[in-house]
From TrEMBL:
Homodimer. It catalyses: Hydrolyzes Xaa-Pro-|- bonds to release unblocked, N-terminal dipeptides from substrates including Ala-Pro-|-p-nitroanilide and (sequentially) Tyr-Pro-|-Phe-Pro-|-Gly-Pro-|-Ile. The lineage of its organism: Bacteria, Bacillati, Bacillota, Bacilli, Lactobacillales. The keyword Metal-binding does not apply. It comes from Limosilactobacillus vaginalis. Residues 1-157 form the X-Prolyl dipeptidyl aminopeptidase PepX N-terminal domain. Removes N-terminal dipeptides sequentially from polypeptides having unsubstituted N-termini provided that the penultimate residue is proline. Coiled coil: none annotated. Gene3D superfamilies: 1.10.246.70, alpha/beta hydrolase (3.40.50.1820), Galactose-binding domain-like (2.60.120.260). This is Xaa-Pro dipeptidyl-peptidase. Its EC number is 3.4.14.11. GO terms for molecular function: dipeptidyl-peptidase activity.
């Protein structure tokens, strides 16, 4: 077991003592009047939450080992001085680590270090040493994925703080607010923010529903920051509807004609009216019981942040249509930020005309969320809207073309063959949940979706104005908020190219950016055992939203990457791409650093038997395993020599291939593969403790998870892929002619990597055509011929480990 902590900030001795007094752990003149052992025992007793009675504390001490053979009370009878071994042996037990399971009773310090817990060596102990060590212990994470102070808080350690006057909150410990806000008294209210658009053509500015969860202390003078999650899923989804409108993909690619353009997408009215203001109130008229919540937000709520959810236009209780990533959808979420900052009007309900301000907010806003949610956080940040001080952009799209298309091809996100922008718009159009409202808007929505479907252009797969409207990258230069990016290196849904493009552009701006790359797919990472992600976010948002000078930017790594070869291991870096480029040439079936003088030709045919085709359409894993094992029938495989040492590969691989298709159309796909027998990390995190991560006292919980090594070895792992239409060899928007058997040179990028290649493993490059998990599946009788001349693979950032 390894635990990694990056959120502990450097704190002076004086500040540590002040904070311990603030927690009621240190009182009066104890720091000067008590000896080290007395101070230690006093601190222990005050963290025993089951009972304050002396007899109960004595019994508790009788059940904690001070040495391998003596309980604390027995050890005290020997009148010995406190030692480092004793302190940390007890500390391991306080943190719920189990003797003989997680650590050796005879070697607690060695196991403390092996687990990776923070430590300060002491040859002898003074009272100040005890206080500083206990302060560090409070910041140390336990076996169940939370710091000791949060463990105590979830047991009621800070329940007394609920009664503190608002002006004394938050309670900061090590630069972060503690869970000192009573969840039982959270205020739940609904407001309706008025936008500057009319996307349902009714002549009135669209209203969007906003749900607010905030501490009662914000009614009593405490101005709190807002953490806003923009989620089109929040008010419900039309899953069955989405399945019915999913597109068929088992049909051939076709020859494209230059100049063939898709219709423009529908536009929205420029003339519409705003609601008349008939009064003002500080109280909302509507509330809510529960709302789909992000558990990181639940963690933050108990620490004083107001939590905001909105599904935006085209959702239940809001106006408008679902437009799937359009500027209008971005502006509907931007409007919520503007209201929180004090720059926009909201109403207490849909009809009264009574406006309401976010008078309880300090004007500072962060946005959080994964996938579509993180996408909208990124989109809103590119508007440069005042008040948005930070975003945590997790598994987010930075260009929708890179989500549903690639290099002139219709290409599905992993696991969602046949989905497209129109399907997602249908699935998230939750105005269907109010039947009468839906009947009134049905014809308008049907007409709009039909126009959207034409504009997105599944026929050619080209980049056009529809996709340009949903490409946030040109506007990254407008970002003023600090950005924390989180992405899975194995995410086949929102692929890593989306975060790499955002990361690269942010490095050119005078804004703070942080990057966390994990080994998962499309997941959240705030409930991992091995990483203090929630504490990192709390530290960061304390700096950005509470405006506390806690050295968050210096404390948190610039780039944090989870190792792909061993569990629970995270490494700090200064940048994503670094090291030497290495160009590998096609030398028959070898990838070689030497450019071969003679050219060879390799052919493969994309057609499969009807039985095989049907099987692979229904089982993508069977196709993938067959592709790896294929010996030139429907692919061309090249490999490197075994690595002579461990290598780190960082950046975006690029491939150049000279190829011909036997038809007047065609597509090329490529996979970069780590070839070598090893136990690899599980594809998804393993559930370790259901509801085991407590987010506050009598509050919400989360499931503790972690990646583990798979019980069996595997022979390969796909680490990157890429696809291109042979008629889009110059750009995704430009169509070039293609004749049968015409050799053309194509150049395209694979997905970005940050990969640890073990000694003895080989890199494999597989070139093929149909990707059964992502592209159209025409099963055509097409032969592809690859010329090795002028064909190569560029691997960036190659560094020995």
């Amino acid at each position: 077991m390894k635990i990694n902590q990056f959120s502990i900030t450097k704190t002076s001795s004086e500040q540590k003592l002040r904070e311990l007094k603030m927690l009621h752990l240190l009182r009066a003149n104890e720091a000067t009047e008590l000896d080290p052992t007395q101070m230690w025992l006093t601190l222990l007793a005050r963290t025993h939450m089951a009972s304050e009675q002396p007899i109960a504390v004595r019994q508790w001490l009788h059940d904690l080992l001070a040495t391998p053979t003596l309980a604390i009370d027995e050890w005290l009878e020997h009148d010995r001085s406190l030692t480092t071994d004793v302190f940390y042996l007890v500390a391991l037990q306080l943190l719920h680590f189990e003797p003989e399971v997680d650590f050796d009773l005879n070697h607690p310090l060695e196991d403390w270090a092996h687990i990776g817990l923070p430590f300060v060596q002491h040859t002898s102990w003074s009272t100040l040493d005890v206080l500083e060590a206990f302060y560090l212990l409070l910041n140390t994470r336990n076996k169940n994925g939370q710091s000791f102070i949060d463990q105590l808080t979830s047991e009621g350690f800070l329940a007394w703080s609920y009664q503190l006057p608002a002006y004394k909150k938050p309670l900061y410990f090590n630069g972060k607010p503690l869970a000192s806000f009573d969840p039982a008294k959270f205020i739940r209210e609904v407001v309706y923010v008025e936008t500057d658009m009319d996307t349902d053509y009714d002549g009135k500015a669209d209203l969007v529903k906003v749900e607010i969860l905030r501490p009662v202390d914000s009614n009593n003078g405490l101005k709190v920051p807002a953490v806003f999650t923009a989620s089109p899923y929040n008010q419900g989804t039309n899953n069955e509807w989405g399945e019915k409108v999913t597109h068929h993909v088992n049909h051939p690619l076709t020859h494209k004609v230059a100049g063939e353009n898709a219709p423009a997408e529908p536009t929205f009215p420029k003339q519409f009216t705003h609601r008349k203001i008939k009064g003002e109130s500080k109280r909302a008229t509507e509330s809510f019981a529960e709302t789909p919540a992000y558990t990181l937000n639940n963690y933050l709520a108990a620490r004083g942040y107001a939590i905001i959810y909105s599904a935006g236009i085209g959702t239940k209780d809001s106006d408008g249509l679902q437009t799937c990533g359009s500027p209008e959808q971005t502006d509907s979420m931007k409007a919520v930020v503007e209201w929180l900052h004090g720059d926009r009007i909201a109403f207490t309900d849909r009809h009264s005309g009574i406006k309401i301000k976010a008078w309880w907010c300090n004007g500072n806003v962060a946005m959080t969320g994964r996938s579509y949610l993180g996408t909208l956080a990124t989109a809103v940040a590119t508007t440069g809207v005042p008040g948005l001080k930070a975003i945590i952009s997790e598994a987010a799209i930075s260009s929708w073309y890179d989500y549903y298309r690639e290099n002139g091809l219709v290409r599905a996100p992993g696991g969602f063959q046949g989905e497209d922008a129109d399907v997602l718009a249908d699935e998230t159009f939750s105005r269907t949940k109010r039947p009468a409202d839906y009947q009134r808007i049905k014809k308008t929505n049907d007409k709009y979706i039909a126009g959207l479907a034409q504009a997105m252009d599944r026929k050619t797969g080209n980049y056009n104005q529809f996709w340009a409207n949903r490409n946030y990258r040109p506007a990254i230069k407008n970002i003023k908020a600090a950005v924390m990016m989180v992405h899975g290196l194995n995410d086949t849904n929102v692929k890593p190219s989306n975060v790499k493009a955002l990361y690269d552009e942010l490095q050119k701006l005078p804004v703070t950016s942080k990057l966390v790359l994990h080994q998962g797919q499309h997941i959240y990472i705030n409930a991992f055992q091995s990483l203090d992600f929630s504490e990192m976010v709390n530290l960061w948002l304390t700096n950005k939203l509470w405006e506390k000078d806690n050295h968050a930017d210096k404390t948190l790594p610039k780039v944090l990457v989870q190792d792909n070869t061993q569990p629970e291991t995270w490494w700090k870096y200064d940048e994503w791409t670094a090291g030497n480029e290495r160009r590998l040439y096609f030398n028959k079936t070898e990838l070689s650093a030497n450019d071969p003088k003679l050219s060879s030709e390799y052919r493969f045919n994309d057609h499969q038997t009807a039985e095989t085709f049907e099987k692979w359409c229904h089982n993508i894993n069977d196709w993938q395993n067959s592709l790896i094992k294929d010996h030139g029938k429907f692919s061309y495989k090249l490999t490197t020599a075994p690595a002579e040492k461990d290598l780190l590969l960082r950046g975006t691989p690029e491939i150049t291939v000279t190829v011909a298709s036997s038809a007047d159309h065609g597509m090329l796909s490529a996979q970069l593969v780590d070839l070598g027998t090893a136990k690899r990390l599980t594809i998804s995190p393993v559930l370790m403790n259901r509801n085991g991560l407590q987010l506050g006292f009598h509050w919400a919980s989360d499931d503790l998870r972690e990646f583990r090594l798979q019980p069996k070895t595997s022979d390969y792992k796909v680490i990157a892929d890429g696809h291109i239409n042979l008629q889009n060899r110059h750009s995704a928007s430009q169509v070039d002619d293609l004749a049968a058997n015409q050799f053309v040179k194509v150049h395209f990028e694979l997905q970005p990597i940050f990969h640890h290649l073990l000694k003895g493993h080989r890199l494999g490059l597989i070139i093929y055509s149909t990707d059964f998990g992502a592209t159209l599946r025409g099963n055509e009788e097409i032969t592809y011929t690859v010329k090795t001349a002028d064909s190569s693979l560029l691997i960036p950032g190659v560094m020995p480990l």
